[in-house]
């Protein structure tokens, strides 16, 4: 029984550490004309936060315009990834 619990614990530690490393891979953030922010991860995928600070879904391929007039095409929809980055871990909510 102890060995089984040890294996489960070790597997959980490996899985959780994979999420922790993922959160640190933001390459840059770009503000859009409507006040939203696009976060570009180092693997090329993106996530979007609206002007109120809420992580929102955006269809891949959607064209958006930055504050400086450039057009950006949405790649990916990394909602969970961005939520884990923006929300503090642990403690009471």
**Which stretches of 5+ consecutive residues score pLDDT under 50?**
14-21
Structural class: alpha+beta
Second rung of CATH, namely the architecture: Beta Barrel
- DSSP helix count? 2
Strand order of the largest sheet: 1-2-3-4
Q: Largest beta sheet, briefly?
A: 4 strands, antiparallel
The portion of residues forming beta strands comes to 15-25%
Give the assembly state of these chains. single chain
CATH superfamily: Copper resistance protein K
| Gap between N and C termini | 35 Å
Would you tell me the overall average pLDDT?
80
Run of helices and strands:
HEEEEEEH
Number of domains: 1
CATH topology: Thrombin, subunit H
Shape: elongated
Number of strands: 6
**Name of the CATH class:** Mainly Beta
The level of helicity is 25-40%
Gyration radius (Cα, Å) is: 17 Å
What can you tell me about this protein's structure?
The protein has 93 residues and is an alpha+beta fold. It has one domain: Thrombin, subunit H. It is built from 2 helices and 6 strands; from the N terminus they run H-E-E-E-E-E-E-H. It has helices at 2-22, 79-86, and strands at residues 26-31, 37-41, 46-49, 55-56, 63-65, 71-73. Strands 1-2-3-4 form a 4-stranded antiparallel β-sheet, with helices on one face. It has a two-stranded antiparallel sheet with strand order 5-6. Strand 3 and strand 4 form a beta hairpin. The chain starts with a helix and ends in a 7-residue tail after the last helix. Mean pLDDT is 80; it is low at 14-21.
